[in-house]
Amino acid sequence: MIKQAKFVISNTDYRKCPAPTKPEFAFIGRSNVGKSSLINMLTNHKNLAKISGKPGKTQLINHFEINDNWFMVDLPGYGFAKVSKSIKNTWEKMISDYLTNRDNLVALFVLVDSRLDPQPIDLEFITWCGQHGIPFVIIFTKSDKQGKSKTNQNVSKFLDECVKIFGEAPQYFITSAQNAEGKEDVIAFIDNEVIE
Ligand code: GTP
Ligand code: MG
Prior knowledge:
Layout: E1 5-11, E2 24-29, H1 35-43, E3 61-66, E4 70-74, H2 85-101, E5 105-113, H3 120-131, E6 136-141, H4 148-166, E7 172-174, H5 183-193
Parallel strand pairs: 2-4, 2-5, 5-6, 6-7
Antiparallel strand pairs: 1-3, 3-4
The chain binds guanosine-5'-triphosphate (GTP) and magnesium ion.
Residues 35-36, 57-58, 74 line the site of magnesium ion.
């Protein structure tokens, strides 16, 4: 259960993040996929994480502390075309350094837009996670934007691609920041990993 959520700090460098003494869960995915919205939905806050209609809103590693007991981390999106190559490289290095060095990272939630066919950039990213031993879970977002059967179709297609890559399907959740679908399931997953 999330009783309390507070912003702690924003960083460009994983070494300046809060001491890695509490379990941590991070959210990543393509720009505009709904990472910040999901964090607000899960924590019952309107503006804890900054949201925008324009991709590229979140540009730092943002730590939130939950129940004084674990961290939730909002990360910048990948695959955002409208930034310069050098900014893109800086972001990618910041994110990959964070993901490969953060010892207390329990799980990385990789957000995937439930409206789309499997996107090469998402498949490339989870392949990279697999290669680097980053434990990840897929979260399909924006399920409110279309009917259930369309969502299920896209989820199946994505999981099929995962089976091709990993030989098995990853754990996944279907969510909507609009109508809170999946909220209890994601929180139950985290609660199961965190001892309070
Ligand atoms: P960056 O920080 O730019 O990488 O984006 P982000 O992944 O954090 O996305 P953000 O939460 O800022 O949301 C992007 C847009 O999608 C906003 O206009 C949100 O209101 C909208 N959005 C996010 N989640 C949902 C959802 O579940 N349903 C609907 N209908 N809209 C959503
Ligand atoms: Mg964001």
